[in-house]
Amino acid sequence: MPETPGVYLMLNKRGEVIYVGKSRCLKRRVSSYFTRSFDFSPKVKKLIDEIASFTYITTESEAEALILEADLIRKYKPKYNTMLKYGIKYPYLCLTISEKFPRLVVTRVFKENDGNLYFGPYTNVKRMRRLLRFIERFYPLRLCSRLLKRDRPCINYYMGKCKAPCMGWIGEEEYREMVENLSLFLSGKSKTLISELVKKMEALALELRFEEAAKVRDQIKALEKVFRQPRMSLDYPQDYLETTLLKLQELFGLERVPEIIEGIDISNLYGKEAVGVVVCFQGGVPYKKKYRRYKIKTVKGIDDPGMIAEVIRRRYGKHLEEGIPDLILVDGGITQVNSAKKTLDELGLDVPVIGLAKREELVYLPNSSVPVRIPEDSPALHLLQRVRNEAHRFAIRYHRKLREKELFKTVLKDIPGVGEERVKKLLKVFKSVYGIKRASVKEISEVDGIGEKLALTIKSFLDTQLKIYGYGNEEEAYELGDSEISKV
């Protein structure tokens, strides 16, 4: 049984599929059914009694496994997939390929043989909505229920949510290509889709259509992030995490097992609104009560090593009562590591420090230009990546929060007809720029003193200005959750 993502099917003595499940690790999940130590529910115990054999299908990612699981449940209607078997309680995505210019609509009714494609059912509606936002960004199909010729395009065109087939501004062939790519995406066929997009990007580049090629490149990167984003499970057994920490101790010759690891990262936009953060992992998992964030005060311009030095002085020079970690990880290469080590020496602290550089994922040690390459499948590398990525996420979130405050001052008040009082009213209702951007025109128009005409202006203005001010990837901001943070 492989230790890869996939879908497993349980069969009874008659060869009937009685249960379909998915997992990021098939071996661990399937073997759990036959482990006596688990305290199963009566339903699962009954399922196990009926299992005569099982089979499995591997996938490239968890995303593909999720899609495949839903398709197989709809096909076999397994006895023990009671929540999904009938499909009517959860929504589907329907791609209306029977229409000349297809739409993607949410429906709870699965109609067989109607000439359309159905994907799902989706048990997690919140994730489905997030998926729709991603689709809206890269596959802007028409949203109107009837395709009527217009004198001018609707607001969705100006918001980048539609290609305006009603105006004849996109041909049927180009539109169909977009629909076919969306179908591949929703079917989980990531390799085929990305391969086709790479060919398209290269062809556009050869024709010197670099702006269009760049858009396809961004789409490829976003798809790779959806399908192939590496993850580390937080529910690994304790002995697994202990083994990983022991491996780190062995790799870097540490005096103690790195029970407490703190990660440091810097975030800024061309040196402006620079911030630094410290995240803490205890026993291999995040310990958010010890997360810290800092506005950079003493360093001007683009100087990551200098900013790392400031964060170290402020975290470890003034707050020793909070304890010293067993290992410090900085996001960066030899320059960042040496800066961190020098500052720790100045503070008289003997704390091991390493750096993890992106791209090749090499580990750097102080005063050594030769990096350490840890095998890609090593749990030790996965843990370091998680610490680094968590620090990066936390830093970006704090940086964006500060930039968003500035954004209110420089953007919202520049919208024609929106003054300070209306800004306050919008903030009171929607809490943030992104809250306003996510809201519908109708919701914005219902705010006291706004109205439909001004709501349309606000919506259109934000869609363009957020990208200009560096807020193009709003999807990432939507997903960030609140952390318990101590302000310093």
Describe the structure.
The chain is of the alpha+beta class and 488 residues long. It has 4 domains: 6-86, 3-Layer(aba) Sandwich (GIY-YIG endonuclease); 93-228, no CATH class; 238-398, UvrC, RNAse H endonuclease domain (Nucleotidyltransferase, domain 5), CATH 3.30.420.340; 412-468, 5' to 3' exonuclease, C-terminal subdomain (DNA polymerase, domain 1, Orthogonal Bundle). Helices cover 45% and strands 14% of the residues. It contains 17 helices and 13 strands. It has helices at residues 26-32, 42-50, 62-76, 125-138, 155-158, 172-186, 190-206, 210-228, 238-252, 304-316, 334-346, 379-410, 420-430, 433-438, 441-445, 451-468, 474-479; strands at 6-11, 17-23, 53-58, 92-95, 104-107, 117-119, 260-269, 272-282, 285-286, 292-295, 327-331, 353-356, 363-364. Strands 7, 8, 9, 10, 11, 12 and 13 form a 7-stranded mixed beta sheet that branches. Strand 4 and strand 5 (104-107) form a beta hairpin. The chain starts with 5 loop residues before the first strand and ends in a 9-residue tail after the last helix. 30% of the residues are buried. Mean pLDDT is 79; it is low at 84-88, 229-236 and 468-488.
